Structures are given as C-alpha cells and as structure tokens.
Amino acid sequence: MTVNQILSTKGKEVYSVLSSTTVYEALKVMGDKNIGAILVIDGTELKGILSERDYARKIVLKDKSSKETFVHEIMESNVITISLSDSLDSCMELMSSKRIRHLPVVDNDIVVGIISISDVVKSIIEIQKDTINHLNSYISQ
C-alpha cells in the first residue's frame, strides 16, 4: 500500500498556520479540527510542524505564555516528509526510527496531505482484515 492509496481513502485535507501565528491560535485550530499536530506553511513553503508534544515541552514545562509565543519559536523546523509513492512500510519505519507521529506528504515541493500514526495503524488493520477474509474463503472452498 502506498501513501497515495491511504490519502485517497483518508482525504488530502491539510490544516496549517503561518509561522507568525501565536501558539495559542494554533492550538485553537488544532482543537477545532481535532488534530494532534499542525503544519506551518508560509505561502506554499513548508516551514515546520507544531505538535501537542512541542506545546507541552516548550511552553507548559518552561512556564511560557502560549498567547505571547509565536509558532516559529517552538515548531520543529527539520520536518521529515514523504512522497505519494512511498510505501506504508517505509512510513512505519520512519515514524518508528525518528519517533514521530506525523508525516507531511509533499509532491513537487507542495504539501498535498499528511499521514498520522493513526492512519498507518488503520491501514495495517484493513490489510490484515482483507488477508484474513481471503484466507478464510480459501480454506472454506
């Protein structure tokens, strides 16, 4: 299974904020959209990613104000990305080895989607269900 196949099921909607957005405003968007991370995109350029983990470690634990801190001050700017043709296995490997939960999908330097660990797990479960059903029907014949 490829990233493109996952996005065709999940959808390619991408939520983002500007790097000049306050952390508080970014958190409001994340809460409204029920997402655990948001991309930071200025124009069409991917500048970073902000996660709940970034907020907890770089705002809460350091006793900073989310209303006075800008996203660019705490975002992860070294963003690992994937392409539409990448496999589910390569996504799992990246997420596991880099200890990340979200992978932006880039095509021709434009963000076209995002894959979360939840999307990967759901896809693996679906593949396993299909395999089990196929084996059950094979055995029943």
From TrEMBL:
Keyword line: CBS domain
Alphabetized SMART domains for the sequence: CBS
Pfam families assigned: CBS
Family annotation (InterPro entries): CBS_dom, CBS_dom_sf, CBSX3_CBS_dom, Diverse_CBS-Domain
CDD domains the record matches: CBS_pair_bac_euk
Domain CBS intervals: 8-66, 75-131
Gene3D superfamilies given in the database record: CBS-domain
Presence of the UniProt keyword Amino-acid biosynthesis in the record: no
Organism lineage string: Bacteria, Pseudomonadati, Bacteroidota, Flavobacteriia, Flavobacteriales
The name this protein goes by in its record: CBS domain-containing protein
Keyword Secreted on entry: no
